[in-house]
Input
Amino acid sequence: MMKTMALTLAAAGMMFGASFTGVITDSGCANGDHKAMGMGTDAQCTVACVKSHGAQYVLYDGKASYTLSDQTTPEKFAAKKVTVTGTLDAKTNTIKVASIAAAK
Output
């Protein structure tokens, strides 16, 4: 009975996901520091790195960066603090994005 309840709660948690707060940046500058790149603002550098240099959008929470499964929506949030709702795949360090919103 306890095992069934634990599995049910775990499955429910995966269905609804979790919230992750941080800054949208790119995998080339995963800590959000774009000064050395000399490509304009942090937002401009983030978008340019993704579009022109093969980087991916990531969420940097101040300690670690997480690749985002959605590589379209983050563009409008480049260099901004956001809350991403989704599920984390710990093996690939990727958040399967359900939603992205400006952090409050």
Summary: Residues 5-13 have pLDDT under 50 and may be disordered. The beta strands are 18-26, 57-60, 65-68, 81-89, 94-102. The helical segments are 2-16, 42-53.
